[in-house]
Design goal:
single chain; four-stranded antiparallel beta sheet; 4 strands; alpha+beta
Length: 154
């Protein structure tokens, strides 16, 4: 029991359980659409998943290979921001948080690599197909424009 939770909040929580399976399916569908839309673009791939279950895809996370894709994760975030599309880096590992900077880190550099290359794309279960298509169009536009931009700077 959580005595800090009011009856109203408990009622809202119970109501959300009734649609949880639907919301998970909607978010999984968003992640699949992104995955399929980027399948032919080198350097952008879905975040690896554990083999012992299924992801809810509550977040639609992708990894960028800067050399193959042609720009960094931060460049992509900036491009999407200019198009008024919110995106963000994946979670920041605890040992990179200022409070824990002096703490001992276990597990190697996997978390740092995921943070450096990972991006979370819009993944709300309420995203329309047009909104999802807009995200994929902007990413495809950048991926196609990068070689042109590099050539123009030579």
């Amino acid at each position: 029991y959580n005595y800090r939770m009011s009856n109203v909040l408990a009622g809202m929580g119970r109501g959300q359980f009734e649609v949880l399976d639907l919301r998970v399916k909607q978010r999984q569908a968003v992640a699949r659409r992104y995955r399929d839309a980027f399948a032919d673009i080198p350097g952008i791939s879905p975040m690896p998943e554990a083999t012992h279950g299924r992801s809810t895809h509550w977040l639609s996370c992708f990894l960028l290979d800067e050399k193959q894709f042609g720009c960094s994760r931060d460049d992509l975030i900036g491009h999407l921001e200019a198009a008024e599309i919110e995106s963000r880096p994946v979670w920041k590992p605890m040992h990179l948080q200022p409070l824990y900077a002096a703490a001992e880190c276990y597990g190697g550099s996997v978390g740092e690599d995921l943070f450096r290359r990972g991006i979370c794309l819009p993944s709300s279960s309420s995203l329309t197909l047009e909104e999802q298509n807009r995200v994929t169009r902007e990413i495809r536009h950048l991926a196609e424009a990068v070689p042109e931009l590099e050539f123009a700077t030579l």
